């Protein structure tokens, strides 16, 4: 399993960061420009990654103010889990961490780990931007 992580500190309390992340409709704001055909509900999202794949994901697990896990609902190019964790820093800020776990063979790892890291970094930066 390949684990890709990106963390950011957001100037909002954990419950606000969690509330934003727990609604898949908000995730479109975190996506880079190579994501299109976005459709979402509170629990599910479908989108296309340019030159890569179509993905349909749904939130499979929520731990109030702590963690959100999303998994593919349709056959993905590889097994994948998208997890966000939020941790209250005790000073009105929150550390949000985006963890992508992907079951990649050597070839896929060489091709996909760079773009997946970029995606994770982009999403955490956008989260900080959007939530201020």
How would you describe this protein?
The longest helix is centred in the C-terminal third of the chain and has 26 residues. It is built from two helices and seven strands. The chain has one domain: 2-Layer Sandwich (Alpha-D-Glucose-1,6-Bisphosphate, Chain A, domain 4). The relative contact order is 0.26. It is 26% helix and 42% strand. The chain has a seven-stranded antiparallel β-sheet. The model has no long low-confidence stretch (mean pLDDT 94). With 132 residues, the protein is of the alpha+beta class.
Concise description?
This protein is of the alpha+beta class. It has two helices and seven strands. Helices cover 26% and strands 42% of the residues.
Strand adjacency order, main sheet = 1-7-6-5-4-3-2
Q: Helix/strand/pairing class, anyone?
A: alpha+beta
Note the run of SSEs as H and E. Answer: EHEEEEEEH
- Low-confidence sequence ranges: none
Question: How many strand elements?
Answer: 7
- Helix content bin: 25-40%
Biggest beta sheet summary: 7 strands, antiparallel
Number of domains: 1
Shape: globular
Percent range for β-strand residues? 35-45%
Chart the SSEs and their pairings.
Blueprint: E1 2-10, H1 14-21, E2 35-40, E3 44-49, E4 54-63, E5 67-72, E6 80-88, E7 94-102, H2 106-131
Antiparallel strand pairs: 1-7, 2-3, 3-4, 4-5, 5-6, 6-7
């Amino acid at each position: 399993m390949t684990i890709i992580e990106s963390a950011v500190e957001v100037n909002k309390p954990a419950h606000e960061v969690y509330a934003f992340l727990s609604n898949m409709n908000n995730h479109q704001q975190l996506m880079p420009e190579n994501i299109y055909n976005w459709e979402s509900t509170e629990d599910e999202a479908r989108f296309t990654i340019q030159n890569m794949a179509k993905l349909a994901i749904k939130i499979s697990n929520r731990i109030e103010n702590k963690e959100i896990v999303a998994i593919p609902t349709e056959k993905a190019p590889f097994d994948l889990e998208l997890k966000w964790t939020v941790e209250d820093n005790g000073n009105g800020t929150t550390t949000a961490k985006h963890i992508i776990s992907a079951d990649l063979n050597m070839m896929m790892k060489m091709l996909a780990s760079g773009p997946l890291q970029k995606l994770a970094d982009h999403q955490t930066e956008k989260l900080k931007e959007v939530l201020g």
